[in-house]
Amino acid sequence: MLEALLPSFSIPENRLTEKHDLNPEDIFSAPCAQYWMEIGFGSGEHISSLMRRHPDYGWIGAEPFINGVAALLKDISPDFEAGQPCNLRLLNDDAMRIALSLQEKTLDGIYILNPDPWPKKRHNNRRIVNPLNLDVFAKIIKSGGALILSTDVPDLADWMIMHTSTHPAFEWTAKTAQDWRTPPPDWIPTRYEVKKARHGEQMCYLFFVRK
Ligand SMILES: C[S@@+](CC[C@H](N)C(=O)[O-])C[C@H]1O[C@@H](n2cnc3c(N)ncnc32)[C@H](O)[C@@H]1O
Q1: How many A from CA of 203 to the centre of ligand 1?
Q2: Which residues pair with 60 in a beta bridge?
Q3: Which of 54, 126, 130, 137 has the most beta carbons within 10 angstroms of its beta carbon?
Q4: 70-113 per-position pLDDT tens digit
Q5: What is the number of the ligand 1 atom nearest to the C-alpha of 192?
Q6: Do 92 and 128 meet the contact criterion of CB atoms below 8 Å apart?
Q7: List of domains in the chain
Protein backbone atom coordinates (compact mmCIF):
# COMPACT_ATOMS: atom_id res chain seq x y z
CA MET A 1 0.00 0.00 0.00
CA LEU A 2 2.74 2.41 1.01
CA GLU A 3 4.79 1.75 -2.12
CA ALA A 4 1.97 1.39 -4.61
CA LEU A 5 -0.61 3.88 -3.43
CA LEU A 6 0.88 6.45 -1.06
CA PRO A 7 2.71 8.35 -3.85
CA SER A 8 -0.65 9.07 -5.55
CA PHE A 9 -1.94 10.72 -2.37
CA SER A 10 1.15 12.30 -0.82
CA ILE A 11 1.53 16.04 -0.48
CA PRO A 12 4.78 16.89 -2.30
CA GLU A 13 7.59 17.63 0.18
CA ASN A 14 8.55 20.82 -1.66
CA ARG A 15 5.06 22.27 -1.04
CA LEU A 16 5.54 21.98 2.73
CA THR A 17 7.49 25.19 3.14
CA GLU A 18 5.98 26.15 6.54
CA LYS A 19 5.65 29.68 5.14
CA HIS A 20 1.87 29.81 4.69
CA ASP A 21 2.20 29.78 0.91
CA LEU A 22 0.36 26.55 0.03
CA ASN A 23 -3.00 26.93 -1.65
CA PRO A 24 -4.89 23.65 -1.12
CA GLU A 25 -6.23 23.99 -4.68
CA ASP A 26 -2.70 23.32 -5.91
CA ILE A 27 -2.44 19.84 -4.38
CA PHE A 28 -5.74 18.49 -5.75
CA SER A 29 -6.28 17.60 -9.39
CA ALA A 30 -9.25 20.01 -9.70
CA PRO A 31 -10.69 22.81 -7.52
CA CYS A 32 -12.85 21.46 -4.69
CA ALA A 33 -16.07 22.86 -3.17
CA GLN A 34 -14.48 22.93 0.32
CA TYR A 35 -11.19 21.99 1.95
CA TRP A 36 -10.96 20.14 5.28
CA MET A 37 -8.12 18.69 7.31
CA GLU A 38 -8.08 15.85 9.85
CA ILE A 39 -5.17 15.87 12.27
CA GLY A 40 -4.15 12.47 13.68
CA PHE A 41 -6.63 10.37 11.69
CA GLY A 42 -5.50 7.09 13.34
CA SER A 43 -6.64 4.28 11.04
CA GLY A 44 -8.49 6.75 8.84
CA GLU A 45 -12.07 5.47 9.05
CA HIS A 46 -13.41 8.96 9.80
CA ILE A 47 -11.69 10.79 6.96
CA SER A 48 -12.43 8.04 4.41
CA SER A 49 -16.15 8.07 5.35
CA LEU A 50 -16.25 11.84 4.97
CA MET A 51 -14.40 11.60 1.67
CA ARG A 52 -17.11 9.24 0.37
CA ARG A 53 -19.88 11.43 1.80
CA HIS A 54 -18.48 14.58 0.18
CA PRO A 55 -16.52 13.52 -2.89
CA ASP A 56 -16.49 17.12 -4.15
CA TYR A 57 -14.52 18.35 -1.08
CA GLY A 58 -10.75 18.23 -0.74
CA TRP A 59 -9.68 16.13 2.30
CA ILE A 60 -6.23 16.56 3.82
CA GLY A 61 -5.08 14.07 6.44
CA ALA A 62 -1.96 13.89 8.59
CA GLU A 63 -0.91 10.93 10.70
CA PRO A 64 2.65 10.06 11.80
CA PHE A 65 1.64 6.44 12.66
CA ILE A 66 2.62 4.52 9.50
CA ASN A 67 0.26 1.57 10.15
CA GLY A 68 -2.62 4.06 10.26
CA VAL A 69 -1.67 5.48 6.86
CA ALA A 70 -1.45 1.93 5.45
CA ALA A 71 -4.88 1.07 6.91
CA LEU A 72 -6.44 4.14 5.30
CA LEU A 73 -4.84 3.34 1.93
CA LYS A 74 -6.12 -0.25 2.15
CA ASP A 75 -9.61 1.09 2.87
CA ILE A 76 -9.69 3.43 -0.13
CA SER A 77 -7.79 1.25 -2.61
CA PRO A 78 -10.96 -0.41 -4.05
CA ASP A 79 -12.48 3.06 -4.67
CA PHE A 80 -9.24 4.23 -6.29
CA GLU A 81 -8.94 1.15 -8.49
CA ALA A 82 -12.60 1.47 -9.53
CA GLY A 83 -11.93 5.05 -10.65
CA GLN A 84 -14.10 6.61 -7.90
CA PRO A 85 -13.17 10.15 -6.87
CA CYS A 86 -10.67 9.97 -3.99
CA ASN A 87 -10.11 13.59 -3.08
CA LEU A 88 -7.59 12.88 -0.38
CA ARG A 89 -4.08 14.19 0.26
CA LEU A 90 -1.93 12.67 2.97
CA LEU A 91 1.11 13.36 5.07
CA ASN A 92 2.72 10.62 7.12
CA ASP A 93 4.15 13.14 9.58
CA ASP A 94 3.36 15.96 12.01
CA ALA A 95 0.18 17.79 10.91
CA MET A 96 1.67 21.14 11.91
CA ARG A 97 3.96 20.90 8.87
CA ILE A 98 0.82 21.23 6.71
CA ALA A 99 -0.88 23.75 8.99
CA LEU A 100 2.18 26.03 8.88
CA SER A 101 2.34 25.70 5.09
CA LEU A 102 -1.31 26.42 4.19
CA GLN A 103 -2.25 29.93 3.10
CA GLU A 104 -4.41 32.09 5.34
CA LYS A 105 -8.17 31.40 5.35
CA THR A 106 -8.05 28.42 3.01
CA LEU A 107 -9.64 25.66 5.13
CA ASP A 108 -13.35 25.21 5.79
CA GLY A 109 -12.56 23.22 8.88
CA ILE A 110 -10.25 21.04 10.93
CA TYR A 111 -11.05 17.86 12.84
CA ILE A 112 -8.86 16.77 15.78
CA LEU A 113 -10.50 13.68 17.23
CA ASN A 114 -9.19 12.07 20.40
CA PRO A 115 -5.80 13.76 20.35
CA ASP A 116 -3.08 12.29 22.56
CA PRO A 117 -3.85 13.43 26.14
CA TRP A 118 -0.29 13.91 27.47
CA PRO A 119 -1.65 13.49 31.01
CA LYS A 120 1.46 14.51 32.98
CA LYS A 121 1.32 18.20 33.94
CA ARG A 122 4.84 18.84 32.66
CA HIS A 123 3.86 17.39 29.25
CA ASN A 124 0.60 19.33 28.85
CA ASN A 125 2.19 21.75 26.39
CA ARG A 126 2.81 18.87 23.97
CA ARG A 127 -0.96 18.67 23.47
CA ILE A 128 -1.75 19.47 19.83
CA VAL A 129 -4.49 21.89 20.93
CA ASN A 130 -2.34 24.53 22.61
CA PRO A 131 -2.18 28.34 22.39
CA LEU A 132 0.55 28.43 19.71
CA ASN A 133 -1.14 25.87 17.47
CA LEU A 134 -4.52 27.57 17.95
CA ASP A 135 -2.97 30.75 16.47
CA VAL A 136 -1.97 28.68 13.43
CA PHE A 137 -5.43 27.07 13.12
CA ALA A 138 -7.01 30.54 13.44
CA LYS A 139 -4.87 31.71 10.55
CA ILE A 140 -5.72 28.94 8.09
CA ILE A 141 -9.45 28.42 8.83
CA LYS A 142 -11.85 30.70 6.94
CA SER A 143 -14.20 33.01 8.85
CA GLY A 144 -17.25 30.93 9.73
CA GLY A 145 -15.22 27.73 9.39
CA ALA A 146 -15.07 24.97 12.00
CA LEU A 147 -12.62 23.56 14.52
CA ILE A 148 -14.04 20.23 15.71
CA LEU A 149 -12.48 18.48 18.69
CA SER A 150 -13.38 15.36 20.64
CA THR A 151 -12.05 13.49 23.64
CA ASP A 152 -13.10 11.17 26.45
CA VAL A 153 -10.37 12.49 28.79
CA PRO A 154 -11.97 14.99 31.22
CA ASP A 155 -8.74 16.92 31.93
CA LEU A 156 -8.01 17.25 28.21
CA ALA A 157 -11.62 18.35 27.54
CA ASP A 158 -11.23 21.10 30.17
CA TRP A 159 -7.90 22.12 28.65
CA MET A 160 -9.24 22.28 25.08
CA ILE A 161 -12.36 24.21 26.14
CA MET A 162 -10.33 26.65 28.22
CA HIS A 163 -7.72 27.39 25.54
CA THR A 164 -10.03 27.40 22.53
CA SER A 165 -12.97 29.31 23.98
CA THR A 166 -10.66 32.02 25.38
CA HIS A 167 -8.82 32.34 22.06
CA PRO A 168 -10.01 35.56 20.39
CA ALA A 169 -10.57 33.85 17.03
CA PHE A 170 -12.82 31.02 18.19
CA GLU A 171 -16.30 30.76 19.63
CA TRP A 172 -17.66 27.62 21.30
CA THR A 173 -21.07 26.77 19.88
CA ALA A 174 -22.35 24.75 22.89
CA LYS A 175 -25.22 26.33 24.80
CA THR A 176 -26.15 23.42 27.07
CA ALA A 177 -24.35 20.31 28.37
CA GLN A 178 -26.38 18.26 25.91
CA ASP A 179 -24.55 20.03 23.08
CA TRP A 180 -21.15 18.61 24.07
CA ARG A 181 -22.39 15.27 25.43
CA THR A 182 -24.15 14.11 22.29
CA PRO A 183 -22.71 14.04 18.79
CA PRO A 184 -24.69 15.45 15.85
CA PRO A 185 -26.88 12.88 14.07
CA ASP A 186 -24.50 12.48 11.15
CA TRP A 187 -21.40 11.98 13.35
CA ILE A 188 -18.95 9.25 12.25
CA PRO A 189 -17.39 7.55 15.32
CA THR A 190 -13.66 6.88 15.16
CA ARG A 191 -12.08 3.57 16.09
CA TYR A 192 -10.80 5.04 19.37
CA GLU A 193 -14.26 6.36 20.22
CA VAL A 194 -15.94 3.01 19.57
CA LYS A 195 -13.38 1.25 21.79
CA LYS A 196 -13.89 3.74 24.61
CA ALA A 197 -17.70 3.55 24.33
CA ARG A 198 -17.48 -0.15 25.25
CA HIS A 199 -15.99 0.93 28.59
CA GLY A 200 -18.70 3.52 29.11
CA GLU A 201 -16.44 6.58 28.84
CA GLN A 202 -18.26 9.91 28.31
CA MET A 203 -17.16 11.52 25.05
CA CYS A 204 -17.02 15.30 24.68
CA TYR A 205 -17.80 16.74 21.25
CA LEU A 206 -16.51 20.30 21.01
CA PHE A 207 -17.53 22.46 18.06
CA PHE A 208 -15.89 25.86 17.63
CA VAL A 209 -16.53 28.46 14.94
CA ARG A 210 -13.77 30.63 13.48
CA LYS A 211 -15.08 34.17 14.10
C1 LIG B 1 -5.47 8.62 20.43
S2 LIG B 1 -5.09 8.56 18.74
C3 LIG B 1 -6.65 8.91 17.97
C4 LIG B 1 -6.73 8.46 16.55
C5 LIG B 1 -8.05 8.77 15.84
N6 LIG B 1 -8.25 10.19 15.70
C7 LIG B 1 -9.23 8.13 16.56
O8 LIG B 1 -10.02 8.86 17.18
O9 LIG B 1 -9.38 6.89 16.47
C10 LIG B 1 -4.20 10.08 18.44
C11 LIG B 1 -3.53 10.10 17.09
O12 LIG B 1 -2.91 11.37 16.88
C13 LIG B 1 -1.71 11.16 16.14
N14 LIG B 1 -0.85 12.33 16.32
C15 LIG B 1 -0.14 12.67 17.41
N16 LIG B 1 0.55 13.81 17.19
C17 LIG B 1 0.25 14.20 15.91
C18 LIG B 1 0.67 15.28 15.09
N19 LIG B 1 1.53 16.20 15.53
N20 LIG B 1 0.18 15.36 13.84
C21 LIG B 1 -0.70 14.43 13.39
N22 LIG B 1 -1.12 13.38 14.11
C23 LIG B 1 -0.65 13.27 15.36
C24 LIG B 1 -1.16 9.87 16.74
O25 LIG B 1 -0.24 9.22 15.89
C26 LIG B 1 -2.42 9.05 16.95
O27 LIG B 1 -2.72 8.24 15.84
Answers
A1: 16
A2: 37, 89
A3: 137
A4: 999 999 999 999 999 899 999 999 999 999 999 999 999 999 99
A5: 9
A6: no
A7: 1-103 (3.40.50.150), 122-211 (3.40.50.150)
